């Protein structure tokens, strides 16, 4: 289904009945990453998945897609569906968007689960990497995407999961260069949202022990500092693929709680 935001079509799915759960995908992903979660969670809940700006079937609106603008597209979908309050699960960039949403619309938040995500802004190093990636995207997009996708998985799993990695790559390569650059800029410019996270009553962090993007120790410190319950999984950045069954269990519990 589609709703218009700033003259651009925003794609979403709406499955099941009950208290609403919103699932937000990460960078270079789209709402299909949640298929298994939707199947499980929609048995007891209404589940809304949204293709964020420049991803999946949703168009681009500018040269920078800030996390706040992405949050506004989420609000547009919820408004269309007359949903006042929801529990959010955000994978990586989806978590940044969920926090931007919580800051803008605190009354619409029931809870947030940050899955392989963080409330922190980029480190200086990550910021520089993003600037480099932006330049490379203009010159050699396919190589960049192929490389970046493999790097999301735990190193020791890359061979075993080669088929799954290929599927993620195929989806990622559907994203236009413009969408890649706009989301990269949006993530690079995002600010620290630790206070926003702390203000949410029902909150959870899920982290991969071998996440090549988000260092486990740093996420663990963040969880301690913000007093956020933390679930440790044995995998990399892609919990929904690398630790599918454990993740389903954790998310089902979180939504029920
Ligand atoms: C993602 O998976 O959404 C990205 O890796 C997040 C990021 O680059 O910070």
From TrEMBL:
<feature type="domain" description="AB hydrolase-1">
    <location>
        <begin position="21"/>
        <end position="243"/>
    </location>
</feature>
<dbReference type="InterPro" id="IPR029058">
    <property type="entry name" value="AB_hydrolase_fold"/>
</dbReference>
<dbReference type="Pfam" id="PF00561">
    <property type="entry name" value="Abhydrolase_1"/>
</dbReference>
<dbReference type="InterPro" id="IPR050266">
    <property type="entry name" value="AB_hydrolase_sf"/>
</dbReference>
<dbReference type="InterPro" id="IPR000073">
    <property type="entry name" value="AB_hydrolase_1"/>
</dbReference>
<protein>
    <submittedName>
        <fullName>Pimeloyl-ACP methyl ester carboxylesterase</fullName>
    </submittedName>
</protein>
């Amino acid at each position: 289904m589609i709703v218009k935001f700033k003259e651009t079509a925003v794609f979403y799915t709406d499955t099941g009945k009950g208290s609403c759960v919103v699932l937000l995908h990460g960078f270079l992903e789209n709402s299909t990453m949640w298929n298994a979660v939707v199947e499980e969670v929609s048995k007891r809940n209404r589940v809304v998945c949204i293709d964020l700006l420049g991803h999946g079937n949703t168009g681009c609106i500018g040269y920078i897609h800030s996390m706040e603008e992405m949050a506004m597209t989420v609000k547009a979908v919820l408004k269309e569906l007359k949903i006042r309050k929801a529990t959010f699960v955000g994978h990586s960039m989806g978590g940044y968007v969920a926090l931007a949403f919580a800051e803008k619309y605190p009354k619409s938040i029931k809870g947030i689960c940050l899955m392989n995500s963080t409330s922190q802004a980029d480190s200086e190093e990550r910021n520089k990497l993003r600037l480099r990636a932006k330049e490379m995207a203009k010159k050699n997009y396919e190589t960049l995407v192929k490389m970046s996708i493999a790097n999301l998985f735990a190193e020791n799993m890359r061979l075993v999961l080669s088929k799954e990695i290929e599927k993620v790559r195929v989806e990622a390569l559907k994203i236009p260069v413009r969408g890649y650059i706009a989301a990269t800029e949006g993530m690079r410019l995002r600010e620290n949202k630790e206070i926003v996270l702390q203000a949410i009553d029902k909150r959870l962090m899920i982290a991969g022990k071998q996440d090549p993007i988000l260092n486990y120790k740093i996420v663990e410190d963040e969880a301690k500092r913000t007093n956020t319950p933390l679930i440790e999984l044995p995998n990399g950045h892609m919990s929904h693929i690398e630790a599918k069954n454990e993740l389903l269990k954790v998310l089902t519990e979180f939504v029920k709680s």
